[in-house]
Fold Cof-type HAD-IIB family hydrolase.
Amino acid sequence: MKKNIKLVAFDLDGTLLTDDKQITEATWEALKELAKREVLLVPCTGRPLSGIPEELVQFPGVRYLISANGARVVDVKEKKVLREELIPVPLAERVLKIFYKYDCLRELYYDGEGVVGQAGYDRVAQYHRSPAVVQYFLGSRQPVPDLWDKFYQENRPVDKVQGVFREISEKARAYEELAQIPEIAITTSLVNNLEINLKDVTKGSVLCEFAEGLGIARDEIMAFGDGDNDLEMIAMVGTGVAMENGIPELREKADYVTVTNNEDGVAKVLVQQLLMEG
């Protein structure tokens, strides 16, 4: 291989997956070849564990999953949680109260599963306009009669809190309120969402600390991303790759900018930088 890369991390939406939420044949072939060469392949996503495509979970080259922007790290082979960075109940309650001031689709992540109120679940198409995203959401979220009731019944820390807004102006106002809470990290992966994690919990920090525990240095990591919640990951690893469809700030931080997620952007870099001989 051209680079001494021992671990490849990749965001899912807008990166590894096409807009139709598929993994192309070219991408599968590149991942299979890396797995043969014993390169660790680590999905690193804002999704809950329940939202990670089953074909990736079952793929022999994937042993570890980083979900909810780093809040949960799982060993797939051993079927155990290796790390949790959860939002305490009082802090999650404060965030949820702010989200309830606005017209947004509110979600809580518990134990790697996304939970949403039934009313929001039934109206998902008003918040997610892409049919592929709606289908993904309906297939990966657990509807409950009332989200507040679920929160108080559980009475325990959450992986992540998310709000998906109908109006960008409301997202901006919610962000201003949330920014007054120093104990949280606020990121986005969509134009109209806000993702809340515990402070200092990001894909980048968790990925690099996790890799270090495996004896893998930052300069031995290649990572791919497209959104705001990928910024630290792309900046912290040895080789950061941004998608052409990614946000401008990410493209500026990256070592490489590849073509879009609909044009096999991940596969092309893997082939050119890691798999081509010579």
Q: What stands out?
A: The domain at 7-84+201-275 is CATH 3.40.50.1000 (Rossmann fold). The chain has eleven helices and 14 strands. The mean pLDDT is 96.
